[in-house]
Amino acid sequence: MPNIAISKLIAHDLALDKASPKTYQQLMELSQIPSEVLDFFSKHISNSVIAKQIRACTFTHKEAAVLLNCNEIARNPDDNQLFINNSINMTQLLFNVMKASSSRSSGTLIFILYNDLDTGLPYLAILKMDPNKAIQIDRTNYKFVIQEDILPSINEKLHKCAFIKLSPTLWDDDFHLKVLDKQQVTGEVSKYFLLSFLESRAVIDNKVMTELVSVNLVEYAIQEKIIQTQSEIVNFNAKVDRLLSNGSDIDLDRDLDSLFKTYVKGDADRGDKIDGFKQRLVQKRENVMFEFVAEKKPTIAMFADVDSSIKIQFPLQDMNTKVFLDYKHEEDGSVTTIIKLKGVELKEKFK
After folding, report:
1. Across residues 180-185, what is the average pLDDT?
2. Which pLDDT score, from 0 to 100, does residue 151 have?
3. For the chain, which has fewer Cβ within 10 Å, the N-terminal or C-terminal residue?
4. What are the tens digits of pLDDT across the range 10-35?
5. Tell me: the pLDDT tens digits for 332-344?
6. Percent with pLDDT over 70 in the chain
7. Cβ–Cβ contacts within 10 Å for residue 21, how many?
8. Contact call for residues 101 and 197 (beta carbons, < 8 A)
9. What is the SS3 string spanning the chain?
10. Entry's InterPro entries (predicted)?
11. What angle do CA 52, 162, 33 make, to 5 degrees?
């Protein structure tokens, strides 16, 4: 989980039954925010950036309003009034967009300036939070109030949030922000947050993601001692190759749970291993996706003798499904190699 340090926080109200949003001209005093609330936001940010629905996105044009507001904040990160003004601008924008849409989901819009302590990079988190009885804002004293023992579970994922790296030259980067835009109602179609408010689109590189998972997954499993014996390593390699067979719809949460189940028995332990691998991918490549379509040629495995005068090659994904290897120790001390091919008929070929 990334180490996050929150430096600024401001919250505005989105009341869609009103003519305009309720905005505020002051930052929330971090020292007055209960530690449980700061932990809640830190953990939600950390969890959201590795949620399977997170999308790496780019702004669709240089004049996108959110991009311009973020560029101003990036150029003057210590200017509190500038941060407040730009948060108000973005709140008014989202309010206008929502009023023009079918959404009637009022709530609180929270802007959090934070640093990723692992990379040293500053980010702006924009979190749209629905009304919640457990964590509320006392507007009289302008502070968060929580009801004891009913702080929302960290497993309750945020539905709409954006994480934008604060760089004045952000437009020149390969991607600009990460967006989580989920719907609470199954089948509801609404893209106002991603398309109309953020003016962004998702960018997916299936080939890069397939290669990233393929290169790192076996190494991670060995380092975490998920697999230890040579036999487990060979079998795991074959399973990874089958998992990433060309054209497969990959959902890393689902597929890694199935893959690890043989090796890691506890659900909680398995979940920790999955999150650990996803964090590794984020460290390797910032704009990762956890749902993609595999784009990969099959890895070719080979059985061969010492001088490679005898060779049998086959797609690695067929190991232990079509191709089986065993050894028989003879009485004279020699070893007989037994290769079984299921559902395969070989014919002689000469070169």
Report:
1. 63
2. 40
3. C
4. 999 888 888 899 899 999 888 888 88
5. 888 888 888 888 8
6. 90
7. 21
8. no
9. CCCEEEEEEEEEEECCCCCCCECCCCCCCHHHCCHHHHHHHHHHHHHHCCCCCCEEEEECCCCCHHHHHHHHHHHCCCCHHHHHHHHHHHHHHHHHHHHCCCCCCCEEEEEEEEEECCCCEEEEEEEEECCCCCEEEECCCCEEEECCCCCCCCCCCCCEEEEEECCCCHHHCCCCEEEEECCCCCCCCCCHHHHHHCCEEECCCHHHHHHHHHHHHHHHHHHCCCCCCHHHHHHHHHHHHHHCCCCCEEEHHHHHHHHHCCCCCCHHHHHHHHHHHHHHHHHHCCCCCCEEECCCCCCEEEEECCCCCCEEEEEHHHECCCEEEEEEECCCCCEEEEEEECCCCCCCCCC
10. Nucleoid_associated_NdpA (IPR007358)
11. 105
Contact predicate 141/31, CB 8 Å: no
Residues 6+ apart with CB under 8 A from 163: 45, 48, 49, 123, 124, 125, 126, 177, 178, 179
In the structure, what pLDDT confidence band is assigned to residue 190 with cuts at 50, 70 and 90?
low
Q: Is 328 helix (H, G, I), strand (E, B) or coil?
A: strand
Average the pLDDT over each of 60-64, 94-98, 206-210, 334-338 and give the range with the smallest value.
334-338
Q: Is the pTM of this model over 0.70?
A: yes
288: number of Cβ within 10 Å? 23
- Say what the alpha-carbon torsion angle 267, 268, 273, 277 is, to the nearest 10 degrees: 100
Q: Quick one: how far is CA 71 from the chain centroid? A: 24
Indicate the helix (H) or strand (E) that contains 207: helix 206-223
pLDDT of residue 149: 44
Among residues 108, 197, 100, which one has the least CA distance to residue 158?
108
Give the closest residue to 208 by CA, choosing from 97, 293, 101, 331: 293
Q: Please identify which residue in the block is written with the tokens 């008929």.
A: 345
Asked whether residue 299 carries a pLDDT value surpassing 70, the answer given is: yes
Query: How confident is the model over 74-92, as pLDDT tens digits?
Result: 999 999 999 999 999 999 9
**Alpha-carbon gap, residue 76 to 166, rounded angstroms:** 10
Q: Return the higher-pLDDT residue of 64 and 48.
A: 64
Per the structure block, which two tokens stand in for 124? 């702006």
